[in-house]
Design goal:
With 393 residues, the protein is an alpha/beta fold. It has helices spanning 16-27, 40-45, 54-63, 92-96, 105-118, 170-174, 240-250, 299-320, 324-351, 359-373, 376-387; strands at 3-6, 9-12, 32-36, 51-53, 74-76, 78-83, 86-91, 100-102, 122-125, 128-133, 141-145, 151-155, 158-161, 180-195, 204-208, 211-215, 222-229, 261-274, 278-279, 282-284, 290-291. Bound molecules: P-hydroxybenzoic acid (PHB).
Length: 393
């Protein structure tokens, strides 16, 4: 039995970008259908990054004044850069009067899913989009398979690809599944979750001769940490003792609180921006449009920044028949995307030790780190970018 539904905006992907877009559209009286191939449990339990920019928190608070960001999440007023065995605090409050919040993405998703479902959003799990058709007409559509394996067609006025780095919507926009500017890095992160109290009050980004390490957090008794590794490393190759010894060697000056490691994963590093972000009646947001390496903590924040721009453009197009903003979407979104690309690349290259780095490269890198921490202008640049540029800049 094949089914067909009609809506104004078909949103492929129920991640932060897709869900926030459905909320902003609903606020403007524009109905949408959101589909995701994953189950609700899968969406709510996938471990992703944890840092929210000030602007992201402001938006989540506007959407839901009782958001748990303020009760379960933690405000961080700075981070530490560590190199040459010494720590250097980047004081966000003092430098730019902004903060970030540590509040993991799966918690954001749990909140948004509950909110959208309570508001009656048409949100379908286990639905796999296969392709998008007719984006050059006023009636684009998503061809999908529903949770029972039956064909489903969603006819819409506009289709949005919020469906991550393996986007099914992307080929309809760019003409190919890959089409974009792309860079790979010669390292990855081994991420762990462990049962231990926090080892520091704030995040530590550490450059050491043994490679990079990031000491992050999750809750009073679960911590998230990462260590630079080979992209083809087997996450299970090291014993727990070896992981702790390696991590500890990379953060001299801090005694890590150790505990049982109950999850490990290897995160590959890529930078990517699709050649086109919009074609006719289809647009891309978030990881479907771009990928950043995680060192700048930009991924989810950049996705949400795209959505704010796209929601305004769709309001103008669909409620006022004004196409000017949607015609400018790619150009407007690209400004921030490329700033975030640069910042993520910069943090990554400044803090990691490339496998072929020689003595000159190491000394130059320490010089670069010193030129950031020794200067208020340098620290301010980092603080501005990390806490997030204001909307539209
Ligand atoms: C995390 O806590 O997962 C995290 C924090 C900062 C980053 C990346 C990941 O830059």
């Amino acid at each position: 039995m094949s089914t067909s539904v009609r809506t104004r905006v078909a949103i492929v992907g129920a991640g932060p970008a897709g869900l926030i877009l459905s909320q902003l559209l609903a606020d403007a009286g524009i109905e949408s259908v959101v589909i995701d191939q994953r189950s609700r449990t899968e969406i709510e339990s996938t471990i992703r990054a944890g840092i929210l920019e000030q602007g992201t928190v402001d938006l989540l608070t506007a959407i839901d004044p009782h958001t748990r960001v303020h009760t379960v999440g933690h405000r961080h007023d700075g981070i530490e850069l560590r190199f040459g065995g010494e720590g250097h605090r980047i004081d966000f409050r003092d430098l730019v009067d902004r903060s970030v919040w540590l509040y993991p993405q799966h918690e954001v998703l749990t909140d948004l899913l509950a909110l959208r479902l309570a508001a009656g959003q048409d949100l379908r799990f286990g639905v796999t989009a296969t392709r998008v058709e007719d984006v050059d007409t006023d009636r684009p559509r998503v061809i999908a398979t529903d949770a029972d394996g039956a064909p489903l067609t969603i006819d819409a006025d506009f289709v949005v690809g919020a469906d991550g780095s393996r986007s099914v919507v992307r080929p309809a926009v760019t003409g190919t599944s890959q089409g974009g500017w792309f860079r790979e890095y010669p390292f990855a992160w081994l991420g762990i979750l462990c049962e231990a109290p926090p080892s520091a009050d704030e995040l530590i980004y550490s450059n050491s001769d043994n490679g990079f390490a990031l000491i992050s957090q999750r809750s009073p008794d679960v911590q998230r940490m990462y260590l630079q590794c080979d992209p083809v490393a087997d996450p299970d190759a090291l014993t727990e003792e070896e992981i702790w010894a390696d991590l500890q060697s990379r953060v001299p000056g801090t005694t890590l609180h150790q505990g049982r490691i109950f999850q490990r994963d290897v995160l590959r590093f890529r930078s990517f921006v699709a050649h086109e972000l919009r074609r006719g009646r289809a647009a891309l947001v978030g990881d479907a449009a771009h990928t950043v390496p995680p060192t700048g903590a930009k991924g989810m924040n950049l996705a949400i920044a795209d959505v704010v721009i796209l929601a305004a453009a769709l309001r103008a197009l669909l409620a006022e028949d004004d196409a000017r903003l949607i015609d400018g979407y790619a150009q407007t979104a690209s400004r921030r995307i490329w700033k975030a690309q640069h910042f993520s690349w910069w943090m990554t290259s400044m803090l990691h030790v490339a496998p072929d780095a020689g003595e000159f490269d190491r000394r130059r890198q320490i010089g670069e780190l010193r030129s950031v921490v020794d200067s208020r202008a340098g620290r301010t640049y980092l603080a501005e970018a990390y806490t997030g540029w204001p909307a539209g800049v």
